[in-house]
Write a structure and sequence with these properties.
By secondary structure, this protein is α+β, with helices and mostly antiparallel strands. Helices cover about 35% and strands about 25% of the residues. The protein is built from ten helices and 18 strands. A hairpin with a 5-residue loop joins strand 3 and strand 4. Helix 2 packs across helix 4. The chain starts with 8 loop residues before the first strand and ends with a helix. Keywords: ATP-binding, Coiled coil, Cytoplasm, Cytoskeleton, Microtubule, Motor protein, Nucleotide-binding. It is found in: Cytoplasm, Cytoskeleton.
């Protein structure tokens, strides 16, 4: 392993603040956030300041978020690094909007489309530019609903059981998940649309179409380079739209909605515990509770592992949500302290072939 491969890189955090929505304006809410001009800093109320890698105020467009914060990750994908984009925040704060989790092909040229459709477009543009490499692209799409992993691309009525395994060489693997090979951007968008239509959403007092599950859309990119196309690198891009943290007194959830909310909050609490354990310098080498939930298990490589990771922390500026907003800002602040160790993911079979070839050439 070279020094380049052993680099430690912190989790990057982008703060995204949506505008006040009509409901908040009608209720007379004021903005409790102040954005420092030309600095990635936000001030809550009159005193508490938070600094992140990127800060996008309510006037920021989707293209600005993508070109500033997401593009650098995509450059790494083509070099063979894994990457993760993780949207976090309270319910109704704009996570699914930012990620593009309700995208359909009818919106193709709409400037309001989010991260996932823009990523798909960029990957195929980059692929066209690299005529010297062979590419194989595949996608999977899952949701974690009430601590069950559901395959959003499975067409069979009897959905197979999905389990999580850890491979010493390849990290976390999901056994039984549908992975579809795709050759074009419209085909990949088709998989996204299919999965989105199967996602679990429900209405609460805070959000008419609230995501009731954590969703992970994964793009796997295999590149074969060199004259004989033997050098192979495999990189994965996880695009994660987390369900929102929520308070029952605000969502007025009852019955199944309330159960879902409890399950969502439990998963996010486990994620917070993992972030705290990884980000606290005083807890170095402490036990990290990845196994406490399916969500943290699936994000094991993304947090403290082999990945370039960006968290998009979404917040509402309304003073009525100030407590939840401060919680999100603190959560994101802790995430910035996590150190990842991304490495180029060379296909082990190709690496072994190269090693044997070198041995043979030395003996000749």
């Amino acid at each position: 392993m070279t020094n380049e491969d052993a680099k430690v890189i912190p989790v990057r955090v982008a703060l995204r603040c949506r505008p006040l929505v009509p409901k908040e304006i009608n209720e007379g809410c004021q903005s409790c956030l102040t954005f420092v001009p030309n600095e990635p800093q936000v001030i809550v109320g009159t005193e508490k300041a938070f600094t992140y890698d990127y800060v996008f105020d309510p006037t920021s467009e989707q293209e600005e978020v993508f070109s500033t914060a997401i593009s650098p990750l995509l450059n790494g994908i083509f070099k063979g690094y894994h990457a993760t984009v993780l949207a976090y925040g309270q319910t109704g704060s704009g996570k699914t909007y930012s990620m593009g989790g309700t995208y359909t092909s009818a919106q193709e040229n709409d400037p309001s489309v989010g991260v996932i459709p823009r990523v798909i477009r960029r990957i195929f543009e980059e692929k066209e530019k690299r005529a010297d490499s062979e590419f194989c692209l595949a996608v999977s799409y899952l949701e974690i609903y009430n601590e069950d992993i559901l395959d959003l691309l499975s067409s069979s009525k009897d959905k197979p059981a999905i389990s999580i395994r850890e491979d010493p060489k390849e990290g976390i693997k999901i056994v039984g998940l549908t992975e579809r090979q795709v050759v074009s951007a419209p085909e990949m968008v088709g998989c996204l649309e299919l999965g989105n239509s199967a996602r679990t959403v429900g209405s609460t007092a805070m959000n008419a179409a609230s995501s009731r599950s954590h969703a992970i859309f994964t793009i796997t990119l295999e590149q074969r380079r060199g004259s004989d196309k033997v050098d192979s690198v495999v990189s994965k891009l996880h695009l994660v739209d987390l369900a929102g943290s929520e308070r029952q007194k605000k969502t007025k959830a009852e019955g199944d909605r309330l159960k879902e909310g409890i399950s969502i909050n439990r998963g996010l609490l486990c994620l917070g515990n993992v972030i705290s354990a990884l980000g606290d310098e005083s807890k170095k080498n402490a036990f990290v509770p990845y196994r406490d939930s399916k969500l943290t298990r699936l994000l094991q490589d993304s947090l403290g592992g082999n990945s370039h990771t960006l968290m998009i922390a979404c917040v509402s500026p309304a003073d009525s949500n100030m407590e939840e907003t401060i919680n999100t800002l603190r959560y994101a602040d802790r995430a910035r302290k996590i150190k990842n160790k991304p490495i180029v993911n060379v296909d082990p079979r190709a690496a072994e072939m190269n090693r044997l070839k070198q041995q043979v050439s030395k003996t000749i």
